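> example.struct
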């Protein structure tokens, strides 16, 4: 406990400030006694490493402070968490966990650790100083003409080395919900299928408050996103058109509790991005519905979850002019990619993102 990894003396000017106040929480799954999640927090930390003790040299690395591991054998294990300033400079804490034998019947048909609910936060239908200018509550029998399906694999897996083939058949309306389903199936040379829908050329917006109530899928390699691209994308390309990620989540290793909001653009120095993340205090984004929002005007973009702000960016500098133009929506569930990495033996299919509504509010001119 409290071990320091760097022992060599260094000049005063080169001393690295070590992380402080490392705390860890070890949680065993109630439905699968071999699955353990670890949550870590520390000040002045750049990333964490998690050693679960079953294979001494193996570790999982995370910037969010969460990791999940499935033990192959029963026994007593010591879990070590390192909070790193650099690869060689860190502090650590340890904790013990006992993994008991699993009932063979449970192994054959394990209970799903996620129990999705239709409960969750609901946002209001009006805000002071705003007018509701567009909404989709998905109560029709089929998807409206406001959306277009993007089909195929894109360029280099949509630029992210994703593994899925996007099809129209993976989207449905289900009693007032839009459902995008990722499936494990061989199609057109890919192992997975899913859907990606856009409002390009049909519903495009500049500024306002955007509320999307949704419940996420889960599992290693699953990557749902609710986002926007600049309407001049076809003319200028990415990232010159700008990108606003209202919500992204990457699945696996306990990462389902973290929402990410990001912008991407072309600055004077080249490609740039900026964003914020928020960890839920309890549960995951797959457990129940949450409302993912941005408030966007000519000066800034602010991200919110369940009406609670968790980050913003000042867009007044001239090299952020992309965010003073119209944008369109994109909803998709990717499988695999550079960021989440790829499904493994713990990933179950099908996986579904459920969207209850999309609402756009703007201030009267």
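> example.seq
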């Amino acid at each position: 406990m409290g071990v320091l990894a760097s022992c060599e003396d260094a000049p005063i000017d080169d001393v690295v400030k070590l992380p402080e106040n490392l705390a860890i929480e070890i949680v065993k799954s109630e439905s699968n006694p071999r699955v353990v999640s670890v949550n870590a927090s520390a000040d002045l930390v750049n990333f964490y490493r998690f050693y679960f003790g079953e294979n001494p040299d193996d570790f999982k690395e995370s910037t969010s402070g969460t990791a999940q591991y499935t033990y192959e054998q029963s026994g007593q294990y010591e879990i070590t968490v390192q909070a790193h300033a650099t690869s060689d400079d860190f502090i650590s804490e340890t904790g013990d966990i006992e993994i008991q034998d699993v009932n063979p019947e449970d192994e054959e048909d394990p209970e799903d650790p996620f129990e999705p609910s239709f409960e969750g936060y609901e946002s209001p239908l009006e805000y002071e100083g705003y007018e509701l200018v567009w909404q989709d509550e998905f109560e029709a029998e089929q998807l409206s003409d406001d959306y277009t399906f993007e089909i195929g694999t894109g360029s280099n897996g949509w630029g992210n080395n994703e593994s899925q083939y996007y099809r129209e058949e993976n989207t449905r309306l289900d009693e007032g919900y839009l459902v995008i389903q990722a499936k494990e199936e061989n199609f057109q040379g890919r192992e997975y299928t899913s859907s990606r829908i856009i409002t390009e050329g049909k519903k495009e917006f500049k500024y306002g408050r955007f509320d999307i109530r949704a419940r996420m899928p889960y599992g290693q390699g699953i990557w749902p996103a609710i986002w926007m691209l600049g309407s001049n994308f076809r003319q200028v390309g990415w990232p010159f058109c700008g990108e606003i990620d209202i919500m992204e989540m990457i699945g696996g290793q306990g990462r389902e509790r973290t929402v990410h909001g990001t912008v991407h653009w072309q600055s004077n120095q080249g490609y740039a991005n900026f964003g914020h993340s928020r960890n839920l205090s309890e549960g995951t984004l797959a457990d129940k519905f949450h409302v993912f929002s941005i408030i966007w005007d000519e000066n800034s973009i602010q991200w919110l979850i369940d009406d609670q702000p968790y980050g913003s960016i000042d867009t007044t500098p001239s090299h952020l002019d992309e965010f003073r133009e119209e944008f369109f929506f994109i909803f998709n569930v990717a499988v695999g990619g550079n960021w989440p990495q790829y499904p493994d033996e713990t990933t179950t299919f099908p996986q579904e993102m459920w969207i209850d509504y999309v609402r756009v509010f703007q201030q009267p001119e």
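> remarks
The first helix runs from residue 104 to 108.
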